[in-house]
Automatic annotation (TrEMBL):
GO terms for molecular function: 5'-3' exonuclease activity; DNA binding; DNA-directed DNA polymerase activity. Transmembrane segments: none annotated. The gene is polA. One of its GO terms (biological process) is DNA-templated DNA replication. This is DNA polymerase I.
């Protein structure tokens, strides 16, 4: 390589690099590149444009490594161009409803990444970009413009490149001077001349009829520029020349409009667009709200963090111990609270532990904290005895992260653990229940400002261990994680206190760990033969429904293909159009059910049956795969998924077994009492959410309804419709039931009208009449939102908080969704808390009374127990007592109990 080339490369590398992004242009492309129906948060906020834009941004920042960045947005469609030509962009339809609110979300992402956003009333984003590109180019910058607007091609120079999306926002073409010339046959600065002649459909600028890019480029090449073409218009022969002369005024207007303004007055100069480094905590908050877990991981993995957190790990005085050294180390270092990490495997109530790492806090600032590792497989009797005694000593405080699995692994190795004072995953969840991830490494960076990366350990010799060239082994890393756990626990104490969550952790969530571990370990028995027969039955039902669907339309199609269904439904059968999506008209279950109600077409009947049978068969297939060697199904319960505090079930999800259809109930029939036990017992709360509503609202009418013993919905219906309870019809009761539960979820008059298939005016009248009779409910619903907006959070009966910053958001859709959450969270969260307290009470009573009956499942408001022979009456009594006494409300907590040989038979 010549010295000249080397110098040139060095000059290029030393030049500042400015990235300018056309915000609306890329957001639109992202919106249409990703199916809107596939990108939405649990709250209903669509995020496809935000996801695509953010993904594109991460890729460009990674690939181009700019040190200066800005994103320009249009303020509105009104600009000096629309003043000059009212039809400018007049052909563009209104933005989709799903798109508008996402622009503000994109700006939130940019704010978290500390990327400057620029807007200017009366101008377009392209004008801002042109101004900055011109200024930066003159100052010696290398400029990259990311835009889907071809008008930016006029800015391309040797030091200005346009990154033009060619496929959604995932593929960008580099438009250099050579690339523009190769595509259009002229220099970039002449591109607006060509566009003036041929027009620009997207901007509603008409071109010269019969004149295409090649002819226009030839004229410009012949006469130098557009001015030359105009000056020589009379000498241009043929139909094209005449067409030019006929439309000369439009061509001149086009050129006035498509020229970008390069001297817009802006608040920031290129030098002030240097990226200061993104705000990790704000990124967490924004990405949590958007539920962008994978995208956040990509961001953290792709872009170096600007925070000092990337510099430090953990200093340990670490040892691998065996024999008498184990007991000595524990005596010396483990009297205070320590962090524990377990090596091993665990899943669905079973596991095995191969090693345990223990770390104590730093004895003094700057002094490495002690850490030890004991190999539980190879350890001698003396080491195991010391570990066993220490683990079972409840006076020795211990902290773990996501403790249920590790405790299961230790238990299956015969090691009981007492004295657990903290679980850092549960603690972080109680502090920030809307987070999507409670990974230890993520929390360590977030709360400690330190990285938990394996590759950092040997780099600065933080571990005093023998390490070969391959780096630290699992034991080394386990000790680092144990140290992170205890340090994180210390950092979370102030957050727990500030959020009033310490009591919930100590009194509810931590004790529940043991209950859930036991339930997972027991599992529930399954009649495998009956489940296999169901699989065959649903397989036949799928085939039969498919066959009848094909006969109804006279041909076979892929019933799972939205495109093929669209052709059949809307083209061939000419059915009413459903909601339009990017890929056509939606064929989701709700839309098809609505279509069937309107048309009663047999094809839809068989299609819906096909879908239902397919879902049921998938459920059965999942259950068959989950049956363990003991003939039982062992689910895994999760405490940190639902922001309201409800437990979740996974692998398989036993909280999602259908119960409202006869065929769904057939699945529950296959869950049976296990050998040696007498029966299954189910117990659940009757109308617990409405009882909590009565308690929280203090509405005298609702309280009276529950205290009277009258059927709730019949009692409320009699008040609303001004009739005697005996005269409340089934239709009246159904309407009241739908509204009573819907109010707790922010149901609107429109929503109620759709749910009950009645006019909106009738739904509004029904709601008004309801609130006239139950004013306390109305006042509570209004007050809880106002209070949450004032404090920033909602609170359950036990003090569980859910923080809702979107209550003051400028984004209407997010704000309204937060308001619905504020209505729902105290009620659903209180119900979840009550059920958890009930589980603790039932488990304690079973243990106190020395019973062999055991709790197997929790399904929202329902508990399922397996009853030992001779214990049925005692178990029923203690379950009723434990559940009814789980909370003191102004209305009684009514408990329904049933028994039977199967889960279905035990229902009530």
């Amino acid at each position: 390589m010549s010295p000249t080339t080397t110098s040139g490369a060095a000059d290029q590398a030393s030049r500042p690099r400015l990235l300018l992004i056309d915000g609306h242009s890329l957001a639109y492309r992202a919106f249409y590149a990703l199916p809107v129906e596939n990108f939405a948060t649990a709250t209903g906020q669509f995020t496809n444009a935000v996801y695509g834009f953010t993904s594109m941004l991460i890729n460009v920042l990674r690939d181009e490594s700019p040190d200066h960045v800005a994103v320009a947005f249009d303020v509105s469609r009104q600009s000096f161009r629309t003043e000059a030509y009212a039809e400018y962009k007049g052909n563009r339809s209104k933005s989709p409803d799903e798109f508008g609110p996402q622009v503000s979300l994109i700006k939130e992402v940019l704010a978290a990444l500390r990327v400057p956003v620029l807007e200017k009333p009366g101008f377009e984003a392209d004008d801002i970009i042109a101004t900055l590109a011109t200024q930066a180019g003159a100052a010696g910058y290398e400029v990259l413009i990311c835009s889907g607007d071809r008008d930016t091609f006029q800015l391309v120079r040797d030091n200005v490149t346009v990154l033009y999306p060619t496929r959604g926002v995932s593929e960008l073409s580099r438009m250099t001077p050579a690339a523009v010339e190769a595509k259009y046959g002229l220099l970039p600065e002449r591109y607006p001349d060509l566009a003036a002649l041929v027009g620009e459909t997207s901007d509603n600028l008409p071109g010269i009829p019969g004149v295409g890019p090649k002819t226009a480029a030839k004229w410009i090449g012949l006469y130098g520029d557009l001015d030359g073409v105009v000056a020589n218009a009379d000498s241009i022969k043929g139909k094209a020349g005449q067409s030019l002369r006929d439309h000369l005024a439009q061509v001149i207007l086009n050129r006035q409009i498509n020229g970008l303004v390069k001297d817009v007055e802006l608040p920031l100069t290129p030098a002030e667009l240097r990226l200061p480094g993104w705000d990790r905590e704000e990124v967490h908050q924004v990405f949590d709200g958007l539920e962008f877990r994978v995208l956040r991981e990509r961001l953290f993995a792709t872009l170096a963090s600007p925070e000092p957190e990337a510099e430090g790990g953990f200093d340990l005085a670490a040892e691998k111990l065996t024999g008498a050294a184990v007991g000595a180390w524990l005596s010396e270092n483990a009297a205070v609270a320590v962090g524990i990490t377990v090596l091993g495997t665990w899943k669905a109530g079973h596991g095995d532990a191969s090693g345990i790492a223990i770390a104590a806090p730093e004895p003094s600032p700057g002094k490495p904290g002690p850490a030890a590792f004991v190999d539980l497989v190879e350890a001698d009797a003396e080491a195991l005895a010391a570990v066993t005694a220490w683990l079972s000593d409840r006076s020795r405080p211990k902290v773990l992260h996501d403790a249920k699995g590790p405790l299961t692994a230790l238990s299956d190795r015969g090691l009981a653990v007492e004295g657990i004072i903290g679980d850092t995953a549960l603690a972080a969840y109680l502090c920030l229940p809307d987070q999507r991830s409670y990974d230890l490494a993520d929390l360590t960076v977030r709360h400690l400002g330190r990285q938990l990366k394996a590759e950092e350990v040997p780099a600065n010799q933080q571990l005093t261990l023998d390490m070969d060239d391959s780096g630290p082994d699992e034991a080394d890393l386990a000790m680092v994680r144990a140290r992170a756990v205890i340090d994180l626990w210390g950092a979370l104490q102030s957050d727990l206190a500030e959020r009033n969550a310490a009591g919930l952790l100590t009194d509810v969530e931590l004790p529940l760990l043991g209950v859930l571990r036991t339930m997972e370990h027991h599992g529930i028995a399954i009649d495998q033969d009956a489940l296999g027969d169901l699989d065959s039955y649903f397989a036949a039902a799928v085939a039969d429904a498919g066959k009848q669907a094909f006969e109804a339309i006279g041909k076979e199609i892929n019933l799972g293909s939205p495109k093929q269904l669209q052709v059949v439904l809307f083209d061939e059968l000419d059915m009413p159009k459903t909601k339009r999506t990017k890929t056509g008209y939606t064929t989701d279950a709700e839309a098809l059910a609505d279509l069937f109600a309107k048309t009663e077409h047999p094809f839809l009947a068989h299609l819906l049956r096909h879908r239902d049978a397919t879902k049921l068969r998938q459920t059965v297939e999942g259950l068959l795969k989950a049956i363990g060697d003991d003939g039982r199904i062992h689910t895994t319960y999760l405490q940190t998924i639902a922001a309201t505090g409800r437990l979740s079930s996974t692998e398989p999800n036993l909280q999602n077994i259908p119960v409202r259809t006869e065929e769904g109930r057939r699945i529950r029939e296959t869950f049976v009492v296990g050998p040696g036990f007498e029966c299954l017992l189910t117990a659940d709360y009757s109308q617990i959410e409405m009882r909590i509503m009565a308690h929280l609202s203090q509405d005298e009418g609702l309280i009276e309804a529950f205290r009277s013993g009258e059927d709730l919905h019949r009692f409320v219906g009699s008040r609303v419709f001004s009739v005697e309870p005996a005269d409340v019809t089934a239709e009246m009761r159904s309407k009241i039931k739908a509204m009573s539960y819907g109010l707790a979820y922010g149901l609107s008059a429109f929503g109620l009208s759709r749910q009950l298939n009645i006019p909106v005016d009738e739904a509004k009248t029904l709601m008004d009449d309801y609130f006239d009779r139950f004013g306390g409910v109305r006042d509570y619903l209004h007050g809880v939102v106002d209070e949450a907006r004032r404090t920033g959070y909602t609170e359950t009966i036990l003090g569980r908080r859910r923080y809702l910053p979107d209550l003051v958001s400028d984004n209407r859709q997010r704000r309204e969704m937060a308001e619905r959450m504020a209505l729902n969270a105290p009620i659903q969260g209180s119900a979840a808390d009550i059920v958890k307290v009930a589980m603790l009470a039932v488990e304690e009573k079973l243990r106190e009374q020395g019973l062999r009956s055991r709790m197997l499942l929790q399904v929202h408001d329902e508990l399922v127990l397996e009853v030992w022979p001779g214990e049925r009456e005692q178990v029923e009594a203690l379950v009723r007592e434990g559940m009814a006494g789980a909370a003191e409300l102004n209305v009684p907590l009514d408990v329904s109990v049933g028994v039977g040989q199967s889960w279905h038979e035990a229902a009530h």
